[in-house]
Amino acid sequence: MTELSAHLPQFQHGQLTENFPDNHLSNTNDNSERRRHDNSERRRNDNPESETNGQPQNRAQQVVEQDEEDEELTLKYGAKHVIMLFAPVTLCMVVVVATIKSVSFYTRKDGQLIYTPFTEDTDTVGQRALNSILNAAIMISVIIVMTILLVVLYKYRCYKVIHGWLIISSLLLLFFFSFIYLGEVFKTYNVAMDYITLALMIWNFGVVGMICIHWKGPLRLQQAYLIMISALMALVFIKYLPEWTAWLILAVISVYDLVAVLCPKGPLRMLVETAQERNETLFPALIYSSTMIWLVNMAEEDPEAQRKASKSSTYDKQAAANQIQNEDADMDDGGFNPEWEQQRNSRIGPLESTPESRAAVQALPSNSQASEDPEERGVKLGLGDFIFYSVLVGKASATASGDWNTTLACFVAILIGLCLTLLLLAIFKKALPALPISITFGLVFYFATDNLVQPFMDQLAFHQFYI
Amino acid sequence: MTAAVFIGCSFIAFGPALALCVCTIAAEPLRLLFLIAGGFFWLVSLLLSSLVWFIAVQIGGSNNASVKKNLLIFGVMVSVLLQEVFRFAYYKLLKKANKGLMTISQEETLPISVRQLSYVSGLGFGIMSGVFSLVNILTDSWGPGTVGIYGDSPQYFLSSAFMTLAIVLLHIFWGIVFFDACEKKKWWALALVILSHLLVSGVTFQNPQYEGSLVPSYIIMMLMATWAFFTAGGSLRNLKLCLMCRDKDFLLANQRPR
Question: Residue spans with biased composition (Basic and acidic residues) (chain A) (predicted)?
């Protein structure tokens, strides 16, 4: 959409200046939004009058009359951006699957989170089903409550609370969870390690991570850290969620994502609308970004904005951290999960744009010339999407009898779901959630491959028949 | 066993496919997308054929080994037919997508030609097929064990790897010939592709007599390779020019002096 593209640079600026508590599943929204922005941005760049914040309709006309080259460029860049998303998603999944396959800690049952109090070690199948439904219901209601809490916090401008929350949550993730991970990896490979070296390693890892994610750092390093923390979160989920509960939660989260993003009264949508009313941008914290051009722009115009931008990137973490803090001190429970999700959710928000908000945003000055080059404009994907995709593939590799066949099938299904989501985004040009299609495909392929394909391939391999 | 067999077999089976991907697919994001989509289509066809086989087994319902084997053969045939159906469906989808893209961009030429698409889709089908056939066997080969301790063939891993290689390459050639046949409405070529696929699957029923299965498969692969080469526009003259580094088009494209 041209209007979206028109206000994308301002939007980004705005976002950088804004402190947003975003709590939720709008990674997808964010994604689609971003993707949409990118598409429209490309077209806008080729528009000779790209500097005017004209009527969206006019812009649309100009878009239609674009140079043919631009459309081909659009397609090529569209494909390029899809691949730019495939790479980190694949990397995160590879890290998670590699860990699951080698480190037995993450497949060992060591209790459950307090959000899933009902056990699945029951005598009857019916009881187990009931328990998992109750677990999933509790988890989802916690997420909804947290999201609403964040929307309320944001509405009443309790920015400091959110800041603190995000910083503490990212501290926890970068130091404590990576310490546990490293410890388990050393145990698996029987590596002798002293505490002093370990402390040095963890300290460096954590501090560099905090700096990269919340402030400035090389782009690749920041991307790597975001992938690592997504993988760590996914591993926590895989470890502490019992089987049936995990699948149910995945399914329900996709539905919730769909509802929260598309319904008029969804918390994400309300969050975005509030943000737009105040002329603040949604905070892009905990979003994987493939470019950092906006930071360059920001440095030139508004040091204040830049400070805020870096702060906003901590919001999600802080929110998540806060949530964890608010929970019991029992770290093993990882009070992380729902809070963190909400963090993420609220943070990214449903990027619905209303005509008023668009007009408001378009009224902002636009000096983002640097980011108009289509090659430099990147795509963004919320970390929550990374996490849930990795949870699905990780659970598939941990518990499937078809083993690698199932893992690969889920992997391909998720990638194709992501591709379809991006395609729908390009067609409908409105905020769409990224979780539903991929997770649905992933779940369908998991159960189908595990129960139907695996016995078939097994028999074929046994007789050495080839299809 | 262990690492040597694992690495050897995986590279036998997937080496050419990997090389093709690195040289031709990796640089172009559009081709990579179509490759993954092709793999997805193959996967869906496998899912449906497994469903058919599963239902047949439930209905057949006996524990007799020969009945099971016959049902498996039936499953294999159904699977081959479904794969070709999905190849046709993918062709139709790609044509529609390309037409849509053309109308959007109002260009004369497609962003990616049907020939490239046929190659990419064939490669996608082949890679998914190979991976699904071989990956569990490869993970077994990593660990310790003795092959053929109960009287089966000790060349299990090696023959599986070679057969998978044949299948991967065959899918590429089938893809090229299939799409060309659909473009030019040469239904006899289409039928021949389907027949050759059935034939290759059929000869694998002779395993573990590998002379009976591997040799015919490779012969069919060579024949399909030449057919695909000529279908894709190759000729003896082109081949000679290419091998003697005198192919002007290729050299111009790569900015190398003759």
Answer: 31-47
